[in-house]
Amino acid sequence: MAMQAHSPAEMAKAENMIRDTLKNLFAVAEAYPELKANANFQQLQSQLHELENNIESARRYYNAVVRDYDTLIESFPSNLIASQFKFQKEEFFELEAPAEERKAPRVSFP
After folding, report:
1. Residues in CB range of 1: below 8 A, 6 or more apart
2. Rounded to an integer, what distance in angstroms lies between the CA atom of residue 53 and that of residue 58?
3. pTM across the whole model
4. What distance in Å separates the CA atoms of residue 17 and residue 2, rounded to the nearest whole number?
5. pLDDT of 37 higher than 80
6. Which residues contact 72 (CB under 8 A, 6 or more apart)?
7. Given this model, what pLDDT does residue 56 score?
8. At residue 107, does pLDDT exceed 60?
9. DSSP character for 7?
10. For 21, what's the count of Cα atoms within 13 Å in the CB-facing half-sphere?
11. 103 has a pLDDT exceeding 50
12. Residue environment code for 90-99, b if the CB has 16+ CB neighbours within 10 A, otherwise e
């Protein structure tokens, strides 16, 4: 779904579904210590963490480029060309639930 999205909002929704599924997977892993200790599962967790960091970095880069683009199409003299060719503002890649995303995760040790 994320690969077929046509707007940043659609892509964010699809990627949030993936993130939620991964959270559930890791919650299940917490209940099974032998799975959590498995080297392959640890490697999977590490790769997924790295992938999430790369996606976050790409989102920040995209938003920075959109901000610069939106500023340029409103600034003189580039706004003259932007209006002539009907350039329009682009939407940012935003979180569905920013307050929930910014919460620190709870960690507990048995």
Report:
1. 10, 14, 17
2. 9
3. 0.61
4. 10
5. no
6. 78, 79, 82
7. 87
8. no
9. S
10. 7
11. yes
12. beebeeeeee
